[in-house]
Write a structure and sequence with these properties.
The complex is a heterodimer of chains A (about 140) and B (about 325).
Chain A (H helix, E strand, L loop, with lengths): L10 E6 L3 H10 L8 E6 L7 H9 L4 E6 L10 H18 L7 E5 L5 H18 L5
Chain B lengths: L5 E7 L5 H7 L5 H7 E5 L8 H6 L5 E7 L2 E3 H13 E7 L1 H5 L11 H11 L14 E4 L2 E4 L3 E6 L9 E3 L6 H17 L15 H4 L46 H4 L17 H12 L10 H8 L5 H5 L18
Parallel strand pairs in B: 1-2, 1-3, 3-5, 5-9
Antiparallel strand pairs in B: 4-8, 6-7
Classes of the chains: A alpha/beta (about 140), B alpha/beta (about 325).
């Protein structure tokens, strides 16, 4: 039996339809192992992730928010992921002011062929969140 | 109800007193108010004791006009009492509607607030670090102070509120509209639907007459004192943070007409969940669009670092009603 008090972080992931979601899919069909702490929501573009979503996710019990985007230059909508980069930078600054560790928001560029990168990014994020502890005490 | 004079109470909680002045801004129209109503309670202008409020029967007061946020035990008690004694309760001004500027106290913990207010400010000498106590014995008298919570709340987070009149202070048009509502209530007993917000349904930008660029792009952010702004052009286009896109209108873009950026006192737009996050999103979207492909993350950080105080700028008036409304403390 797994120990009861081991903290399992909950991660809400927003994955863009064209790259990161396909990358996660590839990780799945290739039977790559990665921690099951992630709940994925497919969005058409990472720029669809309104900062409101991030705050709301944390408020409703997520310990971390993961945004999966296309590599710079690869956005299906030309420039959506550039917007996301800027929002994440500013968002982290705001989170720190609100007393939330900026590391709880993570942005990764994952192409459709990078199943492995997806799996290791999730693994890494889970590890980091375990160190940070639960968002709500 | 018909042709009977209304009983109006005007009360203040955590506020600066500006809302009281905004009421006087009615000028000669204040006589119209005197015709339909008696002011039964107004601590800023009339002598008042707690017993005076206790004496009212339930729902005996017709309209309570409340400004200020709920920051301590006394605020909360009186808010609950006024709710019980009034038919209509109105949150007047940004502090009552969203917590307002005193709501920024939520960016600190109670201990930090005491440390800053009673020790660190340059004008304070307090070597023993004396802070307000809830009770104190002096010559056999037990003195009491209401508990300071260490965070602020908007009025509707404590009691049910019927109408909201945002603004810091509410624009005169809103106060006049309120007078019309009171007149209508006195004459026919009719009231607008519950939850009505007196203000525009559109943003401040909609009322702002400045020339706006088709496609916005900011390559550098300026603080307001760093640049003489062109009074005809959109301030965001000029790199000055203006809360217009994320803020409810109804103020006729007064600040912008005085060549000052909007600071967001009218609160979030009707459908928006969080004013600060919406503004953050809008601003980050237009930074460096022109050369976005060439800018590295470091370059972007340099530009964005000019937003010195995102929480203070984007939530200047609405932190207590934001999604994350109080400082979170990470377990270390």
């Amino acid at each position: 039996m797994a120990s009861v008090d081991k903290f399992e972080p909950k991660i809400l992931a927003f994955l863009c339809n064209w790259c990161a979601y396909a990358g996660a899919d590839l990780a799945g069909v290739s039977r790559m192992q990665y921690p099951p702490n992630i709940r994925a929501i497919r969005v058409m573009c990472s720029a669809r992730v309104d900062p409101v979503f991030v705050l709301e996710a944390l408020k409703r019990g997520a310990d971390g928010v993961f945004i999966g985007a296309c590599h710079p230059g690869d956005c299906h909508y030309q420039t959506g992921n550039y917007k996301t980069v800027r929002r994440v930078i500013l968002m982290r600054k705001l989170l720190e002011q609100l007393g939330v560790d900026g590391k709880r928001l993570r942005l990764e560029f994952i192409s459709a062929s990078e199943g492995k990168k997806f799996a290791s990014a999730v693994e890494d994020f889970v590890k980091e969140l375990r160190e940070l502890g639960p968002f709500k005490k | 109800m018909k042709n009977k004079k209304l009983k109006i109470a005007i009360y203040w909680f955590g506020s600066c007193g500006g809302c009281e002045v905004a009421l006087v801004e009615l000028n000669e129209k204040i006589l119209e108010l005197a015709e339909i109503a008696d002011i039964v309670l107004w601590p800023v202008a009339l002598d008042f004791k707690y017993e005076d409020l206790e004496k009212f029967k339930a729902q005996e007061i017709d309209i309570s006009l409340i400004n200020g946020c709920i920051a301590n035990f006394e605020n909360e008690q009186i808010a609950k009492m006024l709710r019980e004694k009034s038919k209509v309760l109105i949150a007047y001004g940004s502090c009552a509607c969203f917590g307002g500027i005193p709501g920024l106290v939520n960016l600190a913990t109670k201990e930090e607030v005491y440390k800053i207010a009673y020790s660190e400010t340059p004008s304070t000498i307090n070597p023993k670090f004396t802070t307000p106590q809830q009770s104190y014995k002096a010559d056999a008298h037990e003195l009491e102070l209401p508990e300071f919570y260490g965070y602020s709340r908007a009025l509707h987070q404590v009691v049910e509120v019927d109408y909201f009149v945002p603004g810091c202070a509410p624009p005169i048009e809103s106060t006049e509209k309120l007078l019309e509502i009171a007149k209508e209530f006195a004459a026919k007993g009719a009231l607008p639907p519950k939850g009505t917000v007196i203000g525009s349904e559109k943003s401040v930008c909609d009322e702002c007459e400045r020339e706006k660029a088709e496609k916005k792009s900011i390559s550098k952010i300026y603080r307001i004192y760093e640049k003489e702004a062109d009074p005809k052009k959109c301030l965001l286009d000029q790199g000055i943070i203006c809360m217009g896109p994320a803020t409810r209108g109804g103020c006729k873009a007064r600040c912008l007409n005085a060549n000052q950026p909007c600071i967001g006192c009218m609160g979030a737009l009707p459908e928006a969940l969080d004013q600060g996050a919406k503004m953050l999103s809008a601003l980050a979207s237009i930074i460096g669009i022109e050369e976005e492909k060439a800018l590295s993350e470091e370059d972007l950080k340099k530009i964005i670092d000019k937003v010195a105080d995102p929480a203070g700028s984007f939530y200047k008036f609405s932190l207590p009603v934001g999604i994350i409304s109080r400082k979170h403390t990470e377990k270390k």
